[in-house]
Amino acid sequence: xxxxxxxxxxxxxxxxxxxxxxxxxxxxxxxxxxxxxxxxxxxxxxxxxxxxxxxxxxxxxxxxxxxxxxxxxxxxxxxxxxxxxxxxxxxxxxxxxxxxxxxxxxxxxxxxxxxxxxxxxxxxxxxxxxxxxxxxxxxxxxxxxxxxxxxxxxxxxxxxxxxxxxxxxxxxxxxxxxxxxxxxxxxxxxxxxxxxxxxxxxxxxxxxxxxxxxxxxxxxxxxxxxxxxxxxxxxxxxxxxxxxxxxxxxxxxxxxxxxxxxxxxxxxxxxxxxxxxxxxxxxxxxxxxxxxxxxxxxxxxxxxxxxxxxxxxxxxxxxxxxxxxxxxxxxxxxxxxxxxxxxxxxxxxxxxxxxxxxxxxxxxxxxxxxxxxxxxxxxxxxxxxxxxxxxxxxxxxxxx
Length: 400
Hints:
The chain is built from 13 helices and 13 strands. The chain is α/β, with parallel strands linked by helices.
């Protein structure tokens, strides 16, 4: 659903910063206890909460568990159902891979398979990039598939990009990642008759990859998902009149930013250094997307205390973000990743809005419980962008 038109967008000198702690939302470790965000010591965010507005965001819809791709598109003001983008394309864009018209992309995970061929670890112990990189080179060198070129690029840690280049390839494929352990990788099922050949190529790649990786203790198999081909999407400049910039160290999130026309201005792995770049580039852009990944990773690890520590680290970065003197600041996540579940969930995500034209509510701290009664209420995540534009005085009145 389109919320605003280009005719409503007006220019303003006010700057917007969107600070995203990936997987921020959580649930209590035990009934009646605090969530990870509520258990964390967050003096900077609590101070802003006392001067701002809180609310809860549904990334896709109530009860729908989102992937990171559609959740971020919703944050950027896009209908994620209308613009359903495969994860492989985001990885390719984030790695600056030179995509050609018919290339088929997939996001890959190195995984650990047990002696029975079942998935023991979907992320191969988060094998580090310096180990994964030569494995990617080995796969690309040793695997040949009939009628297509094979490209394998290391993304970060256990993640990699697979690209098949050839004629008549289809993205209408089912993932091979079962999203659980104790079961074998899935066969790649075609979702249309035209995709049958592509599915067979993917299964052949997975089979050959297992043979190539047979001497590895951890990364001895691959899981593939998010099959995609290149597609056009309107930019944030076209839709919202924003010169937008991204500060993200993970390739996928740089890919998401590039997909909607953001310029990636900082990819430094140190969060504080990236936050300092906000002030450096302040005069060059209207909108800044700052991404922080550790909250999601620790939630996926089932580690409540480590996620609390990651949130506290993120809170420390907020003081540096404030040094850029934003006119409008929103602090939120793309989805919830409760440590108790160890995966993305459907729970709504807490959001904190601070800055000019903000109506202060009764909250004195930032957490899911206080957000439940905040003045922003509970709303679809894609509605956040018009609210940010309005507070930055970038939307004119609708109608006479």
